[in-house]
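Lecture 7 notes: from sequence to structure.

We start with a single chain of 145 residues. Read the sequence below before looking at the structure.
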Amino acid sequence: MFRRNRADREFREAQRAGQAVLAMHTELPLPDAPGPVAASAAPAATVVPDFLPPDFRAPSRQDVSGFMMRWDLPLVIDGEVHACHCDAYRNWIVFNMRDDSVWLRCPAGHETEETRLDTAWYNRNSGPVDHFHPTLEDGLHHLGH
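Now the structure, written as tokens:
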């Protein structure tokens, strides 16, 4: 009990010391900050757009037909290993389409919609988007299929 009270007291003291340091820095002028400028000497401010130019923007979800990722391990859905009718059970390509449906493609090229998976599952299990492909074949080639 006393150990916990001592730890709480030390934590509160550390918080107060940290707040004092922060308060000290807000009162002091920053060394690299320029001094106040008279209003008449200030140049006319140019308005800079807040967004990136269109060439630098990543496509939005509505701009692409869908997303795809590799799934090399056996795909377990609701406690059972999902297998294709050709007996393939690993090395899937998982597609997340614009309409929030999830499709699976086995290494043999069979595609089926998997209704037990959704966009939330895809987002939890996929990494960041690293490439955008103009065609499905280009994306499959990039993923090794």
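The mean pLDDT is 81. Keep this in mind for problem set 3.
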